[in-house]
Amino acid sequence: MSQDHKTKNAYEHTAKREKQAREEAKDDDALNDAVLHADQHTGQQAVLPPQQEDLLNAADLKEVYAILPDWHKDEIKRLRLVPPGTRLNLGDVFIDLRNPAAGELVAHGEETVGEELLVPKHDTDYEIWNKLKATR
User: Which of these, 56, 57, 82, 101, could form a disulfide with 118 (CB 3.0-4.6 Å)?
Assistant: First the structure.
């Protein structure tokens, strides 16, 4: 094996180890961040809110059009829904499209989304949120 080939292999091996170390450090940072944001009263680990790309678009569900028949399609497209199985964060506010009469729901931090169609307040502009609150 030539010296150039050995040098290239050593470089590739070093680059691979450095990449793996960066990925492990990134995972450690995420874990540390979750621990730092644990609920101070219960010690329960906080769950970060779903990222915007994790939220579902309400316009993709035909049921939403039946629930909100007077709403324009463009307004429904502005609604995002929390996916089933997502654990809710303590204090986050939602409206359940399947039960709008319940009004604003505040998460206790122990619930997981099941059959509800939850619209998160933190991801909804105030015009749409106020219209949702008026839909009872």
Answer: 82
d(CA 20, CA 27) in angstroms, rounded, equals 11
* Residue in the structure block whose two tokens are 């944001």: 37
3-state secondary structure string across 44-100? CCCCCCCCHHHCEEHHHCHHHHHHCCCCCHHHHHCCEECCCCCECCCCCEEEECCCH
CA separation for the pair 93, 82 (Å, rounded): 12
Contacts of 112 (CB under 8 A, 6+ apart): 85, 86, 87, 88
Q: Are strands 80-81 and 56-57 parallel, antiparallel or unpaired?
A: antiparallel
Q: Indicate the pTM of the whole model.
A: 0.61
Query: CB atoms < 10 A from the CB of 113, how many?
Result: 19
- Mean pLDDT value across residues 9-18: 77
Residue 60 has a pLDDT of: 94
